[in-house]
TrEMBL record:
Residues that span the membrane, as ranges: 26-45, 50-69, 75-92, 113-130, 142-161, 168-186, 192-212
The protein, known as: Nicotinamide mononucleotide transporter
UniProt keyword list: Cell membrane, Membrane, Transmembrane, Transmembrane helix, Transport
InterPro entries named among the record's database cross-references: NMN_transpt_PnuC (IPR006419)
Membrane topology designation: Multi-pass membrane protein
Organism: Humibacter ginsenosidimutans
One cellular component (GO) term of this entry: plasma membrane
Similarity annotation: Belongs to the nicotinamide ribonucleoside (NR) uptake permease (TC 4.B.1) family.
GO molecular function: nicotinamide riboside transmembrane transporter activity
UniProt keyword Metal-binding present: no
Major location (coarse): membrane
Localization: Cell membrane
Length: 222
């Protein structure tokens, strides 16, 4: 039984091997996970419920990639994404069932304040936790590097909660994540992730424009 299990797991060793993409070394797990992550953004822009299971699958591959380069903060982020995506999947499915389509809207000013406070306070607390446990990068990693890891972790969680609530603001949170995510991914050797973060930024701008327009339509019908 043990041998069979080892053989089964060994069949996935190729995910942690690299290939050359535009002259850059890219892990297969990083590549597949980010392709699915890009697909998730496109599907979310279209407000298709299938965006959530695609995101879960992509996060599984990115979890493998993060563990391979010892980026444990980012690995924990993928676990959170998988859990929250299950909740978001249910929320969007319910809204589509009730309204006939997934309807988007702006958050209240109170909830915007909660999102901002959660981003700042959450990043500070997660930074302290990652630093104290040496779970980010390597033992003794500088504070700024750990804080960047924490910022992406917390920002992703907040963005997904806002996305599940169908708030337009979730796109703006992704901008904040991308600004840090691009240089951090490159610094960690996940070059394809850095490229994808850049593509994310363009898609986010498109998403903002589309969801703002659709939110106005919903308000006009209310």
């Amino acid at each position: 039984m043990h041998a069979n299990t080892s053989d089964w797991l060994g069949a996935f060793d190729w995910l942690n091997t690299q290939f050359s993409l535009f002259g850059l070394p890219v892990y297969w797990s990083d590549f597949i996970g980010n392709v699915l992550a890009l697909a998730t953004v496109v599907l979310a822009l279209k407000r298709w419920v299938v965006a959530w299971p695609v995101q879960i699958l992509g996060s599984v591959f990115l979890l493998i990639a993060s563990l391979n380069v010892h980026l444990l903060g980012n690995a924990g982020r993928q676990v959170i994404i998988i859990v929250v995506a299950g909740w978001g999947w249910a929320m969007w499915g319910r809204n589509k069932h009730d309204q006939g389509e997934v309807q988007v809207r702006w958050a209240s000013w109170r909830m915007r304040a909660v999102l901002i406070a959660g981003m700042l306070v959450g990043t500070a607390l997660v930074t302290l936790l990652l630093k104290a446990t040496n779970l980010s990068f390597y033992p003794g990693a500088p504070w700024w590097l750990v804080a960047c890891d924490a910022w992406i972790f917390v920002g992703t969680l907040i963005a997904m909660v806002a996305q599940g609530r169908r708030w337009v603001e979730f796109w703006f949170v992704w901008i904040a994540v991308d600004v840090v995510g691009v240089p951090l991914a490159v610094h960690s050797g996940l070059y394809f992730s850095g490229i994808v973060y850049g593509i994310f930024f363009v898609l986010v701008l498109i998403g903002i424009r589309d969801w703002v327009k659709r939110s106005r339509t919903v308000e006009a019908m209310s």
